[in-house]
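User: I'm putting together a teaching handout on how multi-component assemblies are represented. Below are the sequence lines for each component of a complex, exactly as they appear in our records. Could you produce the 3D structure of the whole assembly as structure tokens, so the students can see both representations side by side? Please keep the chain order the same as the input.
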Amino acid sequence: MRFSKKSEYGLRALIELTKHYGHPITRQQIAEEQHVPIVFLEQILLSLKHAGLLASTRGIQGGYQLIKPPKDVTLGQVIRVLDGPLAPIGCVSKTAYRKCEDCPYAKKSYCPLQHVMGGVRNAIADILDNYSLEDFISGTRSNRPARLGAVRRKSERA
Amino acid sequence: MRFSKKSEYGLRALIELTKHYGHPITRQQIAEEQHVPIVFLEQILLSLKHAGLLASTRGIQGGYQLIKPPKDVTLGQVIRVLDGPLAPIGCVSKTAYRKCEDCPYAKKSYCPLQHVMGGVRNAIADILDNYSLEDFISGTRSNRPARLGAVRRKSERA
DNA sequence: TTAATGTTTAGTAAAGTTGTCGAGATTGTA
DNA sequence: TACAATCTCGACAACTTTACTAAACATTAA
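Assistant: Of course. Below is the structure of the complete assembly, with chains in the same order as your input.
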């Protein structure tokens, strides 16, 4: 149940991009600062760009920059772009639901596995979809509404 | 962030084994009941046996059986046997800790990634290490101590 | 003995992970 | 214009993991 290096590097890159929010930095700067293999990093930055999180400018003085306010980008969004759905099994994913092919419970009203794994997916999404880049670099999950059934930012999808 | 088929099949097999707790059933019965490829299933049952969860008897009338009371086996244990640690990155695992090789935060006192991922690992382990096979087949997390800081079964490891 | 079972070792096709390489396209500056 | 720094894009390759299958063998009950 691991996240890939891709997600890890991507998140580390976003730490750097968030620190420099407002002006572009080069892949080289990011790679050096965060110790990420530069050509692999490029792929990752491209994915994040295509997902609409980054903008890039070419040429001298070029580089990548974050185009959304750090508090509006959640770690959940980033990880879904780079690693796919958060859900531990397909039949509990909200972004990429896949019905179980030959699960004997598929046609019944209740599946034990689905029940537990649904809980796991929600626990993961509750954290990652409520944790922004701003929280990330400051190290605090800032003033989110408390848990315990209070209204909270919707645990978007998984 | 998926669990493998191995874990999924293993858990489905354990549903069957829990239902028949007390006497052996054959891989064939399990395979048919749960629609799991039989030869692959065998590997899985062997792993669970080596982990001390199952016993097997050979020959006619043989089969596999659960040797621990269903309420003493947690889903977390099972998944760790079949899929490895629950932790999403090595440096937050309690069962299989691996220090980050070249993370620039490795030598500092605080790592943002470690902070968030530690939370994720605990959320997952809190569920899976407190959910027994008994709960699993009954579909209810029975009378576990409530959340909210109350004493609860230790979230063992990940 | 024989048939039903588990045991063990090997192998393997497909997919995923973690990268590298190289030929361009674009841009600011001299 | 020429040049150098940068991003862009597609290919590809080594390695690992996943999800299996095959086959020879060991054990047991009837």
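A couple of points students might notice: Confidence is low (pLDDT under 50) at residues 145-154 of chain A. Residues 4-6, 37, 39-40, 43, 57-62 of chain A lie near DNA strand C (CB under 10 Å from a C1').
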